[in-house]
Amino acid sequence: MENIDEMFKNDFGTLEKLNEYLNLNSLENNLDLDNLKYKIYSISPIKDSKYLFNYNGNEYEISQSDYYEDRVFYTFSFYRYTFSSRNNLFASIKSNKVAILPFFENIIFHEKFNTIICSRPPDQINLNNLNAKKLYYFDIHSRFIKEEIGLLTDLPNIAMIENEIIPISFNRNYYLENIHDYNLFEVSKRIDDDIDVYSLIDNNGILYSEDFYNTIVVNKENDNAILQKDGFIFNLNIKNRTTKRLPYNGLSDYNDNLIKVIINNSDSDKYGIIDFSGNEVIKAIFDFIDFNLEKDKFKVFNGAYEWVSNKEFRNEFETIKEKIKNPYSIREAYLEGKLLNGKWGIINSDLEHIIPVEYDWIEDYNQDLYLANIGSSIYKYASFDLEAAENFDKEISIHDQIAVFGGKWFAINKKTLQTEETKIELFLGGELLNGTPLKLSGYYD
């Protein structure tokens, strides 16, 4: 029986085989997507993430190494073979249909560019760039586009959009912050030594807006962005490259479709909600507003929305720290402040009060219930992952938490608005501690 490494070498180990493969798979020879001229191979699952790959009558055992769920794109490794560590990866566009064969040492799939870049060692070592590789560009149909010398970690210099090659010319004067699409990049530059400002550029390196901003929030689905600079808020229509000023002074957090905005008044700030086109969803008349699990309803606050920290409140917080239980391993919880004066309620987008603004705390607990409290003490605190802090190879993440202690609790049925008193000793931003099961019209937590 032929040695497995020799078999692999004969199938994939020569430049002649590589060039033959690239020519067969070339874009020029496969412009018609309905009549591709190259062969697509099948794989058969064995168990777990292992498969059998049959090529020209030779059978290889392979292992799945990566998976891009949104595009049903897989990469595999010939992990057993010692012939060459350079030729051990290939790609499957579908879970059982192999398209890119194992002539390459590494593969990166750039989803937003519809390109797959594979690498091999260069023919000659460049002493000025020892990390340089020979790069091979394929599209998502595994058609070979071009080869060049470069770094596998670099941004692709082309995208393949609707069977057309689109050049990518990134402006190296800026630092790349985020890739929203092949033609939409968030970039930054540093001013005044320690201040970063942000803008958006296209695939030709041209700014969508001539200015740079303190904050940028992009919604690519409707081609709009909200921009903040020096106490002013703007809407950017990305498609038309037009910017308009909005009557707000700041923005808070956001979800997929909506943004919390702020108007600075002389006596207090007022919060509202807009969409990414700049249209008003909730007028900025509330002392605070927050998103709900129900996307068409909002949690509102009337009063002095201030988290106050002093010695008295820190001592209060010490008495409940031992009762705090949450998913993180906490060595210490640090009080950020106590909410003193104000009431919470729930409204809809028509400003109709679903739950009156009369509770000291209210929580959109799940699909069936609101939880509301009267007479509680409400603390905001920060915690950190102890395991990560003690293991330097892990990233330390800081978590902002809410603790609601004491008072009288009510469970409110979302459908009927029926209210029933319940017992909760401590509420932690979505988690109940030592609370009796919530019971309302046959519902059990």
Explain what you see.
The protein is mainly β and 445 residues long. The strands form 9 sheets. Strands 24, 25, 26, 27, 30, 31, 34 and 35 form an 8-stranded antiparallel sheet that branches. Strands 1-2-3-4-5-6 form a 6-stranded antiparallel barrel. Strands 7-8-9-10 form a 4-stranded antiparallel sheet, with no helix packed on it. The longest helix has 11 residues, at 311-321. The chain contains 4 helices and 37 strands. A hairpin with a 2-residue loop joins strand 5 and strand 6. It has 3 domains: 4-167, no CATH class; 169-286, no CATH class; 290-445, no CATH class.
| Percentage of residues in strands | over 45%
- The helical percent reads under 10%
What's the total count of β strands?
A: 37
What's the mean pLDDT score?
Answer: 85
CA-based shape: elongated
| Count of helical regions | 4
Low-confidence stretches: 82-86, 437-445
Largest sheet: 8 strands, antiparallel
SS content category:
mainly beta
Supply Rg. 29 Å
Provide the number of structural domains.
Answer: 3
Q: Alpha-carbon distance between the termini?
A: 64 Å
